[in-house]
Amino acid sequence: MNADNHPHRKRSAYPDLPLPRPFYDYTALEAAPRLLGQHLIRRTEAGDIVCRIVETESYGGIEDKGSHAYGGRRTARTEIMFKAGGAAYIYLIYGMHYCLNVVTAEPDNPQAVLIRGVQPLTPVDAEYMAANRNIKIKRPSDLSGGPGKLCRALRIDKSLNGTRLDAPGGALWLEQGDDPVSLDIVQSPRINIPYAEEYVSQPWRFYIKDNPYISVKEKNEQAFTWT
């Protein structure tokens, strides 16, 4: 078989470098902007589909009223958030949409970053994702701008809950992409969490400015600065 057609060849100009293990020790708020530009790899029967992460949201700690683990709520669903960072936390919302999160921080400190938008790296990746969406794609955000859209496009569901994202070669993992410090990042409040009370207005959503694959462009977005 020609190397270019090998089903598990990553079609990317980037080297195959996993995120450093210490990356997953960050809190969700630290990890969310740092995940921008990194690559999400989905192994499929069609080959390794590679996407660039362009939008994230932070859900960090037991004090965050927007988090499933607020107040230390430890259930069968949230248990994965209490594990060591590096796992995928996947859940279903509205009975129809799956959401992919990256668990971070040390055990018993429930932190997770919601992946809200991804950008396919090649036309081959985009073609695979569009076939899974099975709708007319009028603009890039229709393909994978939103947590439910990207999960459908990449065929991510509850069967992948708990997958180690720090272990390349499985069904789903993360690799190094662009240096997030080099990106024009903006931040805004998170989306659709009215129950979070005073945490509703926290600017804990991060995205690459003007990227066409983000779910929603916030009119009052703020420039993000590294501290």
Protein architecture, described:
Helix content is 13%, strand content 25%. It is α+β, with helices and mostly antiparallel strands and 227 residues long. Strands 1, 2, 3, 4, 5, 6, 7, 8 and 9 form a nine-stranded antiparallel sheet that branches. Strand 3 and strand 4 form a beta hairpin. Helix 2 crosses helix 4. The termini are far apart. The mean pLDDT is 93.
Number of helices: 4
Mean pLDDT: 93
Strand elements, count = 9
Unreliable segments (pLDDT under 50, ≥5 consecutive)? none
Tally the structural domains: 1
Proper CATH architecture: Roll
Q: Strand pairing plus helix content: what structural class?
A: alpha+beta
Short structural summary:
With 227 residues, the protein is of the alpha+beta class. 13% of the residues lie in helices and 25% in strands.
Blueprint (SSEs and pairs):
Layout: H1 28-34, E1 39-44, E2 47-60, E3 88-93, E4 97-103, E5 111-120, H2 123-133, H3 140-144, H4 147-153, E6 172-175, E7 185-188, E8 205-208, E9 222-223
Antiparallel strand pairs: 1-2, 1-6, 2-5, 2-8, 3-4, 4-5, 7-8, 7-9
Helix pairs in contact: 2-4
